[in-house]
Amino acid sequence: MTVHTFTLDQLCTLAALPKRTVRYYIQIGLVPRPVGENRGARYLSEHLDTLLRIKQLTEAGLSLERIREVVSGAPLPVPERPKVPGAVDVRSHIWINTGIELQISPDEAGATPEQVRALARAVIEAWNHIKKGSA
After folding, report:
1. Fewer CB atoms < 10 Å away: N or C end of the chain?
2. Residue of 119, 103, 123 whose CA lies nearest to 111
């Protein structure tokens, strides 16, 4: 099995990143240090893969701190769909008492109808308990 190694110049060309950026990513620990030192330093395909992933996440608008989490194995956040004209957003409005209304989007909350009803009952019970305590 052949192991491909790259010089810093080759790595930067393949990743389409300036040397300064690659060095910075290594300095802050986003990219592992090269194999060897100084002019003998070599970069592996793993370095290139990491740089391409960082570039993709940066272009998607993630901060370097969040990129650090993602590169280290944290789940990638799912971006919220942009609201477009004609989009429908279904919400349930549950009347708790005069002046009090619970608003929930069951789909976004991942709640079943039974869970929504249980939440409504719990909020009504909590409100009634609070009212009794202040009377």
Report:
1. N
2. 119
Query: Measured between alpha carbons, how far is 26 from 51 in angstroms, rounded to an integer?
Result: 10
Kind of pairing between the strands at 43-44 and 92-97 = unpaired
One-letter amino acid for residue 39 of the chain: R
CATH of domain 5-71: 1.10.1660.10
92-97/100-104 β-pairing? antiparallel
Structure tokens at 23: 């060095």
Q: Per mean pLDDT, which range of 20-34, 41-55, 75-89, 107-121 is the poorest?
A: 75-89
Distance between CA 125 and CA 76 in Å, rounded? 38
Cβ-based burial of 113 (10 A; exposed 0-12, middle 13-18, buried ≥19): exposed
Q: Containing H/E element for 94?
A: strand 92-97
Q: Where are the domains of the chain?
A: 5-71, 92-134
pLDDT in tens, 43-69: 999 999 999 999 998 888 888 988 888
Q: For 96, phi and psi rounded to 5 degrees?
A: -95, -45
